[in-house]
Amino acid sequence: MKFIGDAILAVFPPEGVDRGVRGLLELKDAADQFMIKHGWECRLVVKVHFGPVAAGHIGAGASRRYDVLGKTVNVAARLETPGVALSVEAFRQLGPEVRRCFKKHTPPITYVRQEDLHRPRWAKRT
Fold first, then answer.
1. pLDDT tens per residue across span 74-83
2. Which residues contact 36 (CB under 8 A, 6 or more apart)?
3. What pTM does this model have?
4. In this structure, what DSSP letter does residue 48 have?
5. Cα separation values, 126 from 9, 13, 93, 119, 123, Å
6. Where are the alpha helices (DSSP H) in the chain?
7. CA distance 56 to 49
8. Tell me: the pLDDT tens digits for 48-76?
9. In the chain, what is the greatest distance between 2 CA atoms, to the nearest angstrom?
10. What's the rounded Cα separation, in Å, for the pair 77 and 122?
11. Residues 6+ apart with CB under 8 A from 16
């Protein structure tokens, strides 16, 4: 796990992608319910991409830390959604049961959770 401000980057091995995505969906539901209970307007956003990364300890001395870098991290960060979005590459890694939780959205192609509306960042909220 990597903390980036108030965001978290979670990394899963290829054989754990179904478990990882199911866990993220459960985390989103729990976090959103917690925020609703407290009257907070914010919601958890989940973005999933699949691909190679460079991972390991970076830096020296007291600034040495474990980090995850690469294009895969950047692609995940750029997915647009107010809820849950998977890239095409991530969706293709899922088993049939977990795939049924998502629907195709274009453009660009992403997969969003069945119950989520897809609203680009530039669209006004009403």
1. 999 999 888 9
2. none
3. 0.78
4. E
5. 30, 39, 35, 11, 9
6. 17-37, 71-78, 88-93, 96-99
7. 19
8. 999 999 999 999 999 998 889 999 999 99
9. 50
10. 16
11. none
Reading the block at residue 42, the tokens are: 């914010």
Alpha carbon separation from 16 to 19, 46, 93 (Å, rounded): 5, 17, 10
Displacement of CA 23 from its chain's centroid (Å):
11
Closest CA to 78 of 7, 29, 30, 18: 7
Positive/negative CA dihedral, 120, 110, 90, 69:
negative
Helices (H) and strands (E) in the chain, counts: 4, 8
How are the residues of the chain apportioned to helix, strand and coil, as percentages rounded to the nearest 5? 35, 25, 40
**8, 85 contact by CB (below 8 A):** no
Partnered with residue 48 across adjacent β-strands are: 86
State the Cα–Cα distance between residues 35 and 56, nearest whole angstrom.
33
